[in-house]
Amino acid sequence: MFVIILGIAWQARKELHKAVRKILAASAKLLQSPFAGTFSTVDVEDHECAVWLLLRKSKSEDRTARLEAVQEMAEAHQWHDYQYRTVAQACDPRTLVGLARSKDSDLRFFLPPPLLPPLKEDSSTEEELRQLLASLPQTELDECIQYFTSLALSESSQSLAAQKGGLWCFGGNGLPYAESFGEVPSATVEMFCLEAIVKHSEISIHCDNIEANGGLQLLQRLYQLHKDYPKVQRNIMRVIGNMALNEHLHSAIVRSGWVSIMAEALKSQHIMEASHAARTLANLDRETVQEKYQDGVYVLHPQHRTSQPIKADVLFIHGLMGAAFKTWRQQDSEQVLTEKALEDEDRYTTCWPKTWLARDCPALRIISVEYDTSLSDWRARCPMERKSIAFRSNELLRKLRAAGVGDRPIIWISHSMGGLLVKKMLLEASKKPEMSTVIKNTRGIIFYSVPHHGSRLAEYSVNIRYLLFPSLEVKELSKDSPALKALQDDFLEFAKDKKLQVLNFVETQPTYIGSMIKLHVVPEESADLGIGDLIPVDVNHLNICKPKKKDAFLYQRTLQFIRETLAKDLEN
């Protein structure tokens, strides 16, 4: 028996050595390594040759050949484990990013991130995050970044936790930021620090400091610690996505293992997680992507490399208390279990532009933007921040132009105050020569309950919880606002002159604002732009942009408008 076991072990070692020699031989022949002479006569299996041939092709000077190699690798689903690992260890960063952005690529192409350095003695992730934040430049910052930074550095966990119901509303999620702390008590201080670091990461030189001070590794440690807390992970991905805007940091981001993490996140069934990953990977992919996606600009389709020609852009702009994803969910989402939603996106979707519209019009690039808004200065995200519609429109216009908006035909889709932003953006773009393509390529606009002539929302300050101190955004919606009247008059003249196609929807049901106010936010007369069809819909202000189902009139009429307005562009 002992002799038989020895024989089996010896045979196994012999087969293993034989396989290793074949791999070395293939490497020598195809990558011209120093072993070429030694192993020049060794027989190599075809399937092993294929791996090395693809690796060699992926490093070709011919861009088309490189793209073909990545596509062939991504379509390989019958390889042995060691073949995927061979590619993972031998491919260059450009190929790795390409595989991460390929829809069907196997996750075995991606090595686990390198081991993280141990924490300093008597330290914690919270303390190291504070130290990272303190190491960032504190000069020449706007007031809000200074405020975020000083608050994060000065407050203790106990005092932060005591601020429930406090002063914050982050990320356009429409919920008081501090209220979310009850869900993640252990992550309270980290969240404040992360919010400050997100703002710092919008400044290129600060990204250099984050990388130099070990931020990529520290953020990865936090990401792993808070796997059950998506809000923490999304803020971390925002930082990495912002850092990826700086091409000189790409090699550091790849070396630290973030591509592997993003490749897995991109395959998530949760739209927000996948979209954050898609943004980061697109910013890393300079092989096929020329645009840069700044913080708050998310491509909902296509999120992967694709051979589908993209012929037009559809842009989604949310309104007060909205967000890039939740504003555009299907109606009655709270009553539908996530498991059922994931089973059949035709029956329910958490973001209908990404699922229904992308499927119905695959030749579109679909972008949704996110910006911070608040109903009340009492809950404003930054006490020093007073962002007018004019300020926000310039900020968003700059970000969208960096994302290549204007290079293709455009349809704008907006809800509530988002429609005022669209109007202001187009008027501002018409005055700037560098934005002329945005005007030239704008084909049409859909307005979902946009208060062109003001909203009664600004008149209500009776509910101490929501409108004790109406925010600047709400004040600008006042019916007697001179700025709002000038915007309406100027845009109506502009839209008629450019012969823009316009479709208006308006709610007919009142909306509950908090527990005390029941308000018809945008009445029919205010939603009437003066051109285009005006269609009343029997829903409230929040649901006017949330179709009940795919075959509902609200979605089908929207789809019809897009197809008709872009008919010539989609045919070409």
Describe the protein in words.
It contains 26 helices and nine strands. Strands 1-3-2-4-5-6-9 form a seven-stranded mixed beta sheet, sandwiched between helices. The chain has a two-stranded antiparallel sheet with strand order 7-8. Residues 1-6, 30-44, 156-186, 333-345, 375-380 and 461-470 have low confidence and may be disordered. The chain is an alpha/beta fold and 572 residues long. The longest helix has 30 residues, at 2-31. The radius of gyration is 27 Å and the shape is globular. The chain has helices spanning 2-31, 46-58, 63-74, 81-90, 93-100, 125-135, 143-154, 157-161, 188-200, 204-212, 215-225, 230-243, 250-255, 258-266, 271-284, 338-343, 352-360, 389-402, 417-429, 436-441, 464-467, 472-475, 482-498, 524-527, 553-565, 567-571, and strands at residues 297-301, 312-317, 364-369, 410-415, 442-448, 501-507, 511-513, 517-519, 533-537. Helix 6 packs parallel to helix 9, helix 7 packs antiparallel against helix 9 and helix 11 runs antiparallel to helix 12.
Structure summarized in a few sentences:
This protein is of the alpha/beta class and 572 residues long. It is 48% helix and 8% strand. This is Protein SERAC1.
List the keywords.
26 helices; 48% helix; membrane; seven-stranded mixed beta sheet; 8% strand
Structural class: alpha/beta
Count of alpha/pi helices:
26
Shape: globular
Mean pLDDT: 82
The portion of residues forming beta strands comes to 5-15%
Q: What distance lies between the first and last C-alpha atoms, to the nearest angstrom?
A: 75 Å
Q: Please compute the radius of gyration using only Cα atoms.
A: 27 Å
Portion of residues in helices?
Answer: 40-55%
Order of adjacent strands in the largest pleated sheet? 1-3-2-4-5-6-9
Main sheet record:
7 strands, mixed
Contiguous runs where pLDDT drops below 50 for at least 5 residues = 1-6, 30-44, 156-186, 333-345, 375-380, 461-470
Could you tell me the number of beta strands? Answer: 9
Keywords: Endoplasmic reticulum, Lipid biosynthesis, Lipid metabolism, Membrane, Mitochondrion, Phospholipid biosynthesis, Phospholipid metabolism, Transmembrane, Transmembrane helix
Family: Belongs to the SERAC1 family.
Organism: Heterocephalus glaber
Membrane topology: Single-pass membrane protein
